Amino acid sequence: MARYTGAVCRQCRREGEKLFLKGERCYSDKCGVERRPYVPGEHGQGRQKLSEFGVQLREKQKVKRIYGVLEKQFRNYFAKADNQPGITGEEFLKLLERRLDNTVYRLGFAASRNEARQLVRHGHFLVNGHRVDIPSYSVEEGDVIEVKESSKDMTRMKEIIEFSAQQNTPEWLEVNLEKRTGKVLSEPLREDIDLPIREQLIVEFYSR
Questions:
Q1: Residues 120, 156: contact at Cβ < 8 Å?
Q2: Is residue 195 exposed (0-12), middle (13-18) or buried (19+ Cβ within 10 Å)?
Q3: Cβ(37)–Cβ(63) under 8 Å?
Q4: Cα(149)–Cα(18) distance, rounded to whole angstroms?
């Protein structure tokens, strides 16, 4: 499956804001956006003026990068949200939030969504007692997510837990970092998604 393999910090710089793609590094003075707050490339420091379409496209690209989803799957999420009752933009973000890799990140079992995706693929997590290694698996209310017993004492997992103890867990999730377990209490609400996203622009982009 195709994946972006370049410098991750370039993605944040391209969007002009922190997307928190590199975990602990994003909170340090090594953050690429802090060190070079302009678009990468030879003309990155020049003035840029975007059209209405350009603004919508940049918002779509930003959300794809935040959640680490490729275009086809991203478009499928939107189509599914568009067919559901409710506000399309909000339903769309809820579908992205309920991905297993994002849920693992939100619970504090990974320092970034990229790391969460890798850990899920390597089979380090159980959902309701069963091993799940599909990052796009959609969690439901009542689901229990836990770190596999043999993975709880990994050096990297201990480092992640120490880092996550300083972070906040969203209201739709409950976590016990000591036991390495978490539970989905409800569907995420729009106010639970504390990301700089203007979902209406994405709706407008796909509604052209």
A1: no
A2: middle
A3: no
A4: 34
CA 104 – CA 115 distance, rounded (Å): 10
Amino acid at 73: Q
Helix H or strand E encompassing 176: strand 173-176
CB-based contact 70:2 (threshold 8 Å): yes
Q: Which of 15-24, 53-62, 82-91, 112-121 has the lowest mean pLDDT?
A: 15-24
Tell me which residue of 206, 197, 6, 208 sits closest to 94, measured CA to CA: 197
**Contact (CB, 8 A) for 77 and 202:** no
Helix (H) or strand (E) holding 158: helix 155-164
Token output for 68: 């680490």
Q: Which domains does the chain have, with CATH numbers?
A: 1-49 (1.10.1050.10), 99-186 (3.10.290.10)
In whole angstroms, give the CA distance from residue 84 to residue 69. Answer: 20
Q: How do residues 7-21 score in pLDDT, each as one tens digit?
A: 655 555 555 665 656
pLDDT at position 1 is 41
Rounded to the nearest 5°, which phi and psi values hold at 130? -115, 140
Nearest to 136 by CA among 181, 99, 81: 99
| Complete DSSP assignment for 118-176 | HHHHTT-EEETTEE---TTPBP-TT-EEEE-GGGTT-HHHHHHHHHHTTSPPPTTEEEE
Using an 8 Å Cβ cutoff, are 152 and 158 in contact? no
Is pLDDT above 60 for 42? Answer: no
